[in-house]
């Protein structure tokens, strides 16, 4: 069976989607939707025709309310309006007449009112052997020998062409419009879907990113770090993902949002939201255009609310934070990027920062600095996202975990049994109380002062149990517990107790 898979012709023995993907060992991610597309041949439109000269074209729209004798006749004789019979016979302020041809239409000598740009049959001298195709250029009343029965439709385009035609010029042809091939597709995760001869399968989309919007590109790359795009908003003109809604972005690359382009909101309540367009839209100063779908656009057109799409980006995300210095070196060698190690330069040191931070800047410069630390300085944490969803979002946003694999906490001050970290009071302005330590606070618990207290946004960790106070020194109703470090060895407690103002610790989220 001959099919197309991700744009490439393939001959396969299997007929089911899953078996075909296994047979070809193609790029596919379990759980992601695949598009299955059939192409239906186009055909002639019987209600719209092109009237052509050597240099221009007009359009005639046939009235479709009901089939009249005149319309049936036009469908039969339209190919004859060319050469001598396509000559412009006469031109007045009211009409342009093309022809003549001989017909057997009935004669009606009564006057009637013709609308502007109405297309109809009329006679010369009330003689059906001199039947002309006439176009009314303005509303007027006259008798052309056919009355109401001679009406065909109206001119919808090329009106200036008709206005400028002069006597003895010629129509080269009148032809029905032809529809392009119609692509009909659907998306599915059902690997038992039967595939038919000639169908197309798309398992992923490829996105080319624009260097003119480096921050927006990085935003998208961090959103799709697992090569997945979750669709949580859908209309007839776009699909969208709100997973990073709320993050700030500068104004970059405001331009026409063409079909299959991508943009991100840079302001308003929807800032940070990613859009992929199924239809073109005008430029908007609140949208940064940062990329285009270059492969698998049928997945965009057919995707539905709740679908997950496998994403491939060009370039790939140049993020090595969370890797070892050695793994970062191997990663950048594949991309022909020079790595300069800083901080702890040992092969097994953990990379906690990189400069430049943005993928598009790294690609432009061709070099990157990777800053390493001892593995012991990076704490693996599991956030209580179910119990404290707003606090978890705040923590990830303030530490940087929302856009990179490792976040950082800067020490505000330290006292015996408690370490406080800098927060952001503005970001914590809507941090409602949740997951409160009403039964006391255990050591290793990290919390955030909620909006009920003056020091909202402050973060802290308990190094010893407390029945009276939370991790930030507030009473139990003033701090939300967001995570707990369960592996508190004596060495870890010793490390944390020695922290002082300005020191930085690093956190890596466990899934």
Characterization of the model:
This protein is an alpha+beta fold and 511 residues long. The chain folds into five domains: 2-42 and 180-202, Ubiquitin-like (UB roll) (Roll), CATH 3.10.20; 45-178, Beta Barrel (Cyclophilin), CATH 2.40.100.10; 205-314, Cyclophilin, CATH 2.40.100.10; 325-373, no CATH class; 377-509, Beta Barrel (Cyclophilin). It contains nine helices and 33 strands. It has an eight-stranded antiparallel sheet. It has an eight-stranded mixed sheet with strand order 17-23-16-22-20-21-19-18. A seven-stranded mixed β-barrel has the order 27-32-30-31-29-28-33. Strand 18 and strand 19 (238-241) form a beta hairpin. The mean pLDDT is 92.
Structure characteristics:
511 residues; alpha+beta; Ubiquitin-like (UB roll); Cyclophilin; 5 domains; eight-stranded antiparallel beta sheet; eight-stranded mixed beta sheet; 33 strands; elongated
Provide the residue-averaged pLDDT.
92
Q: Beta-strand percentage?
A: 35-45%
Order of neighbouring strands in the sheet with most strands: 6-7-10-9-12-5-4-13
Q: Report the strand count.
A: 33
| CATH level 4 superfamily of the largest domain | Cyclophilin-like
SS-based class: alpha+beta
Kindly identify the CATH topology of the largest domain.
Answer: Cyclophilin
Rg of Cα set: 35 Å
CA distance, first residue to last residue: 42 Å
CATH architecture of the largest domain: Beta Barrel
């Amino acid at each position: 069976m001959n099919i197309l898979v991700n744009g490439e012709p393939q001959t396969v023995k299997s007929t089911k989607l899953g078996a075909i993907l296994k047979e070809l060992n193609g790029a596919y991610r379990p759980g992601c939707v695949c598009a299955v597309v059939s192409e239906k041949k186009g055909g002639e439109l019987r209600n719209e025709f092109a009237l052509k000269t050597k240099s221009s074209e007009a359009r005639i729209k046939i009235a479709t309310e009901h089939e009249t004798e005149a319309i049936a006749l036009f469908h039969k004789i339209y190919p004859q309006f060319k050469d001598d019979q396509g000559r412009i016979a006469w031109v007045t302020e009211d009409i342009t007449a093309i022809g003549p041809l001989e017909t057997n239409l009935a004669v009606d000598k009564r006057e009637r009112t013709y609308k502007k740009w109405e297309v109809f049959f009329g006679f010369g001298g009330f003689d059906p052997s001199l039947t002309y195709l006439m176009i009314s250029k303005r509303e007027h009343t006259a008798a052309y020998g056919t009355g109401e029965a001679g009406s065909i439709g109206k001119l919808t385009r090329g009106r200036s062409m008709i206005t400028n035609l002069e006597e003895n010029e010629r129509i080269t042809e009148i032809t029905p419009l032809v529809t392009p091939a119609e692509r009909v597709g659907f998306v599915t995760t059902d690997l038992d879907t039967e595939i038919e001869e000639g169908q197309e399968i798309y398992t992923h989309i490829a996105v080319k990113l624009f260097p003119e919007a480096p921050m927006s590109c990085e935003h998208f790359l961090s959103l799709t770090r697992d090569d997945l795009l979750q669709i949580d908003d859908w209309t007839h003109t776009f699909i969208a993902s709100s997973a990073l809604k709320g993050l700030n972005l500068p104004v970059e690359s405001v331009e026409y949002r063409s079909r299959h382009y991508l943009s991100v909101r840079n302001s308003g309540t929807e800032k940070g939201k990613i859009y992929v367009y199924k239809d073109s839209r005008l430029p908007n100063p609140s949208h940064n255009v940062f990329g285009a779908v270059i492969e698998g656009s049928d997945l965009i057109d057919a995707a539905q609310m709740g679908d997950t799409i496998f994403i491939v980006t060009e370039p790939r995300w140049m993020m090595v934070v969370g890797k070892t210095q050695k793994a970062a070196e191997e990663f950048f060698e594949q991309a022909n990027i020079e790595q300069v190690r800083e901080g702890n330069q040992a092969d097994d040191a953990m990379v906690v920062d990189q400069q430049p931070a943005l993928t598009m800047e790294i690609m432009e410069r061709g070099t990157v600095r990777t800053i390493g630390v001892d593995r012991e300085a990076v704490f693996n944490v599991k956030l209580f996202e179910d119990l404290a969803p707003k606090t978890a979002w705040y923590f990830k946003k303030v530490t940087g975990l929302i856009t990179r694999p490792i976040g950082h906490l800067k020490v505000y001050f330290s006292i015996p049994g408690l370490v406080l970290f800098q927060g952001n009071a503005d970001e914590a302005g809507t941090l409602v109380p949740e997951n409160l330590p009403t039964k006391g606070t255990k050591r290793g618990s990290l919390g955030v002062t909620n909006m009920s207290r003056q020091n909202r946004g402050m973060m802290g960790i308990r190094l010893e149990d407390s029945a009276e106070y939370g991790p930030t020194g507030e009473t139990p109703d003033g701090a939300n517990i967001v995570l707990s470090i369960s592996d508190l060895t004596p060495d870890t407690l010793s490390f944390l107790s020695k922290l002082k103002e300005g020191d930085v610790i690093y956190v890596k989220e466990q899934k």
